Amino acid sequence: MVVSGQGKLEGWLTALLALWSLTLSGCQLLPREPLPEPGVVAGAGRDQPGTLHFQISPGHTGSYYGWQVEVAAAEHNKGFISFTSRPMEAGQRLDTRLWADRYQVRVLHLGRVRFQEWVPVSAGGDTLISVKLSFLRSTVTPHVGEEARRRLYGTPSRIRDLSSNYQPFTVHAGDGLRVIFDGPQYRGELAGPGRLEFIQNGATLATMAQARIAANEIIGELRFKDERKVDQALNGGFSFPDGTVSKWSDGRRFDGAYRGLQPDQGELRLADGDLWHGSVELLMPRGPGVLKRRDGSWLELPAGSDLLTLTGTVPCGRSSGDSGQCHYLDGQRLSSAVDLKRRLAGRQTPSTGSATGCQLAQGHFSRGLGRSRLILGADGKGEFEQSSGAGRFRFYTEFKYQAQPERLDVKYGEGSYTHVESGQVLHRTGISEVALPCRFDGHTLWLEGKPYQRN
Prior knowledge:
With 455 residues, this protein is mainly beta. It folds into three domains: 142 residues, Sandwich (Immunoglobulin-like), CATH 2.60.40.2890; 106 residues; 98 residues, Lipocalin, CATH 2.40.128. It has four helices and 38 strands. The chain is elongated and about 100 Å long. The N and C termini lie far apart (93 Å).
């Protein structure tokens, strides 16, 4: 068969078009050995980052523009922020600092995936994803270690540092405290000193710049936002041992048990010199407990009450031995029980003949991961139990109550404060009567602004 000159020309054009389509359609992956696991290069430490290089060969042959690298995930390291680079072209290089781990890398050309694989980055080491451009084909090949360094040329067009690639992550959460860490990692493990931030109720309570987390203690200089000083180090549970003393510049001092970083149960000396023995919440006295004033008088707060909102009749007296009952409304002392009843009557919500609001709150309630438990019976009787000091102390009392739509009038019986392990009763409280502002939505009962969930 004889092929004309025109036929030969058409054949060559077809072949060239086929090769050109290969170039436009992307790259070719060449057979190679499996990549090694991440490690630590000689002379480096686990706390040193490695570098992932993405490099496109120079020249304007083949598909020389529209290349991107995407690092989608870390296999173990926490807080990693995935990213996709801006479009890059021939001769450009992106260097990314990463903690040692395997990372899911994709290479895209004009939006289409041309390479996808988990690649290792070693501590102190180099990993290169190399795009070699060609008129006929472009190849994407990973290299590690010395081979990666040997193939690098020029200087990077852009560098992504560690702060762009990671965000702080939670290393502890409990007792209302969240602790986040920002520092070196090695395949998901903390690999060296880093910054700790202690967050309570959504606000930063303290920081530790160069913290080391050991099995039984947290090593570093703890700096509180309110500049308090403590005399012992944090333990491995991110709290202080019992008996740790905290001091403030305004004269406040606490000695006792802690919940996280905050005082929970013990002796709190207030800035005015008054001395509180009992539960502490937000650095303020919170019943049950006893307040001893500088003038020699004392006042007993029932469970759940505080000095600012105290309403009702509570035990009080003087250190000389005199004792009796004191009457309060919204934290202000009144002259007599008659005055208290008259003022409370003025707040009475007119009855509509049907139960509303807190009058519908009955059953078992709890708050603070079960640290406080409340029972409201249909017969007007109830029980209150509160654990403190990481469960080492227990307060328990029974009471009678009368529910109003927005208030509970409570008469507490004798309460006991017990050391759980030994069973020793450390303190007994007297009989008291209080009016607790409340709100109930059918599931959550708010008493003095504190939420209790119905079980």
